[in-house]
Amino acid sequence: MTNALNARQIIRVSGTDARDFLQGLISNDIAKADAGLIYAALLTPQGKYLADFFVLHDADGYLIDVASDLAPALVQRLAMYRLRADVQIAPVEMTVAALAEDTPGALPDPRDAGMGWRLYGGTGGMTREEYDARRVAYLVPESGIELIPNDSYLLEVGFERLSGVDFRKGCYVGQEVTARMKHKTELRKGLARVSVQGDVAVGTPITAEEKPVGTLYTNIGGEGIAYLRFDRAQGPMTAGDATVTRIG
């Protein structure tokens, strides 16, 4: 039983140009961070996901809370965009805990109220198993599982529902593709909650009547998160030896 958020890295972005710098890069409106924790992503120019993270504003700039395995590439990408801006980017030693109940100093998870609170500089909190159960219940994707760098599109993985993208903020890297998917196309693929009957490994392909439907990702307690082609996910499906049925 491991702490849910023991593999996070905090990165500080500071300097006189930090606000404008982040506003031109991330999917959410940096101004919202003045009121609390926000969720956002950095995309490729083609609109594909590179990293998701939380942003916290404090007196010294902005703290970015990102998965540890994505942190080196995120720092490298931010440094590439810095050019001559007065922006400093540096790792910070700080723990993060996911809490099931509110506590002084904790911040509500902006993705969904059911995900609880995040406490910076705190320890303990939910185990990985408890956290994943909530992710499945509230259909919240995770980097390295449902969120795949250079492959995932924000709207297909639920970023609008999770308050991770702002369509009124103006330009940012990958904005044109994301806006076009919002306004000019109907999503035919994306994440969904599923019931799972049987044992099956993460990443197992899902089929229906021998046709590919998608992929099963997180699977816990008989329910999971799958990436599906919606027009083929109308009834019982198969993933390995397990039966999969869409429930949301």
Helical residues, percent = 10-25%
Strand content: 25-35%
> What is the radius of gyration?
18 Å
**Multimeric organization:** single chain
**What gross morphology would you assign?**
globular
| CATH level-two architecture of the largest domain | 2-Layer Sandwich
Total number of domains: 2
Order of helices and strands: EHEEEHEEEEHHEEEEEE
Provide a descriptive summary of the structure in words.
Helices cover 15% and strands 34% of the residues. The chain has two domains: 8-181, Gyrase A, domain 2; 189-246, no CATH class. The model has no long low-confidence stretch (mean pLDDT 95). It has 248 residues and is α+β, with helices and mostly antiparallel strands. The strands form three sheets. A six-stranded antiparallel beta sheet has the order 10-11-12-9-14-13. A five-stranded antiparallel beta sheet has the order 2-3-4-1-5, covered by helices on one side. It has a three-stranded antiparallel beta sheet with strand order 6-8-7, with no helix packed on it.
Short recap of the structure:
This protein is an alpha+beta fold and 248 residues long. The protein has four helices and 14 strands.
List descriptors.
2 domains; 6-stranded antiparallel β-sheet; 5-stranded antiparallel β-sheet; about 15% helix; alpha+beta
Helix-strand layout with pairing:
Blueprint: E1 8-14, H1 18-23, E2 38-43, E3 49-58, E4 61-67, H2 71-82, E5 88-92, E6 96-99, E7 107-108, E8 117-120, H3 128-137, H4 175-184, E9 189-197, E10 204-208, E11 211-220, E12 223-229, E13 237-239, E14 242-246
Antiparallel strand pairs: 1-4, 1-5, 2-3, 3-4, 6-8, 7-8, 9-12, 9-14, 10-11, 11-12, 13-14
